[in-house]
Each structure stands twice: as structure tokens, then as C-alpha cells.
Amino acid sequence: MSIHACKQLYATLTLEAVSGSVWAGEVAVTGWRLKNSGLTVDPVSAGDVPLDTFHAEDAAVTRSISGFNITQGWAGVGTDTDHEVTDGDKDGIANAIKTYFSSVLAYVPDDYQVRDIRIYPILGSGATLPEKPYHTATAPDIYTPTSPIVGAVSGQWMSPACALVLSTQTATRGPRGRGRWYLGPVYGMNDNTGLVNSGYAGSVAAAGATMLSTIRGIGGTSSARYAPVVWHRGTDRGSVISSVRVGDEIDFQQRRRRHRHEVYVSSAVT
Question: What is the pTM of this model?
């Protein structure tokens, strides 16, 4: 087994169009960076904080917990408990993300479902292991639902490129203190105005805040062990997220379609 020094976890949620849908084969991925830290500081008021190091050890194990089958790609080890990532910690993170998505199913089309949740160890450079962005010799832990988790909106569709943005706010000023993640495809529009329903936006923001608070609590809020952060590549530091907000307009993800080929209708110019 090989052991690699890491400074972050990266958790992703992947949705996929269900079989038989016109969009079958399309996927939508969003993710969260989590710093590993033994700091005994208030995680919100600290602003920029250094990222402590833990170690990821290759470990191919298949296990399960309630609601998930798990293919374990790595194990967290360290010289003390502040730097060890346990299976229980990772299970808690995955369950928090599952609860978040389950809370917003009422705004997701029923053509989409959760494919999996993944947890990666991330180097200080921002790359997954070994040292290539989004490529890893140490596979992520993959949590696959044992029962389908499917959107609940029927008969109301927007393009898979449409998504709702959850903006993350930190104590750090300026653009580097803000981040975003996407929920999409979605449907939550007011048919009279074309804007997002205020109740919908509030529900999604509350679900996102609950998810991040739950993840922070896994390591104990005083140590902010798995504090969600906006990470800065240039300084290798992270600003701890203190709040999230959702706007009243739909945004777009510049995602390349994987399977469906666009159908064109031509009209001759004479």
C-alpha cells in the first residue's frame, strides 16, 4: 500500500438521468471541499485558516451502511487522532449529503436520480492523487444508494444545463471569500414571472446550511475538523463557509452533453 500526504477532502454528488428518459446518459456533478484541521479556533470568525495534513492510504474494501453500498478506495491514517479520517467520518459526510438532496427532491425532475456520492483525498495543489487534476491512483470512496433516490417533479422540465446556484459566504473579503455549488437540473419557477419561487430558494438554502453544519459537527465544531471551505489555490488556505444564499434566478452550467445529440430542424433560404 502507498501512503500520500493530503490536506483536503472533496465530496461530490452525481445525478444521472434515469433509463428511458430523453436525457438518459446525462450526468450532473457538484462538490464540496472540506479542510482537515486540528485547529481549536472558532471556524467562522477565523477567516483564512491553514490546511493541516492527514494521510490517505490506498485500501480497496467493499462495505455497506444503511442506504448505501460502499466501495472504499482509501483509508485515512495519521500520527494522531486529529489527522485520521475514519470510515465513520466518511459515512457521516455521505449521509449529510444524502439528507441534503432528499430535502430538495420536490424541486428536481423525476427523470433524475442520485448515481453516487464520492469522497476523494485532495493534495494541497488541488489535485487528486497522484498529482493530476481529477485523476487518481487512489480511488475515491463511492457510496451507491441501495434504493433509488429520485426527483419528485413530474411533467415540468428545464434543460439539464439549468441549475440553481447556492452561493457560499465566508469571513474573507472579496471574490476569493465566496464560492458556489450547483443544484441541477431543477424546476422551481414561478410561471408568472420566470423567477425562482421564494419558498423554493429558502428551502434549498436551509437544506444546504443544514448539510454543512452537520459535516462540521462530525469532527466537533470546536476543531472544525471537516469544515467546508472556499479554497484558495494561490495561498493554499481555506476560508470557512459561514452562510449560504440562493438567488431568484436560474443559472447555467457549461456542461458538455455526453449522450444525447441535438436534433435540428432546417429551413431553406430561397
Answer: 0.83
